[in-house]
TrEMBL record:
Residues making up the signal peptide according to the UniProt record: none
Gene3D superfamilies associated with the record: 3.10.450.50
Family matches, as InterPro entries: NTF2-like_dom_sf, SnoaL-like
Residue ranges of domain SnoaL-like in the record: 7-111
Organism: Mesorhizobium australafricanum
Classification via SUPFAM superfamilies: NTF2-like
Protein name listed in UniProt: Nuclear transport factor 2 family protein
Pfam families: SnoaL_2
Length: 153
């Protein structure tokens, strides 16, 4: 399947929160690096991730556009939204815009990672300012501890 078609199938599977369909697009040892749940390695972990996602929300929508592909990687701008069903945030609509990065091996996704302004998600959930600060500090530590970030510090 050409990479552009794989990305279209990925977007359709994401929008329907179909873990089996998402996992089938990945290499057996592929990595789906989720903004909330972190890296999920292997098809079984990816399927389980989408089981958890399905349980935590409803009314999912996903769009991927402005996709640029090479022979082994692609980037695309995405919009993703859902209504959370989780805890005290239940019933809140959340909309996210970001960029997804895909690496491919043998026509399967070997790595997917997204970048988005996660702070906007926390505000849309109505999270308390003190909790937002704790979460953003944790994400900052994670970002700054990345070995590739060290030369920028």
């Amino acid at each position: 399947m050409p990479l552009q078609e794989t990305i279209e199938a990925f977007n359709k599977a994401i929008a329907s929160v179909d873990g089996d369909a998402v996992a089938a697009l990945f290499a057996e040892d592929g990595v789906y690096h989720d903004l909330v749940y972190g890296p999920q390695v292997g098809r079984a972990a990816i399927r389980d991730l989408f089981r958890r996602v399905r349980q935590s929300g409803r009314d999912y929508r996903a769009d991927m556009e402005d996709v640029v592909c090479s022979d082994s990687q692609a980037y695309g701008r995405y919009r993703f939204s859902f209504t959370t069903q989780k805890g005290s945030y239940a019933g809140r609509r959340v909309a996210i815009e970001g960029v997804g990065y895909f690496a491919f091996k043998d026509d399967l996704i070997s790595h997917y990672q997204e970048t988005a302004n996660q702070g906007l998600t926390l505000v849309q959930l109505g999270m308390e300012p003190e909790k937002i600060e704790r979460v953003l500090k944790r994400w900052t530590i994670e970002l700054l501890s990345d070995s590739k970030m060290q030369r920028h510090l």
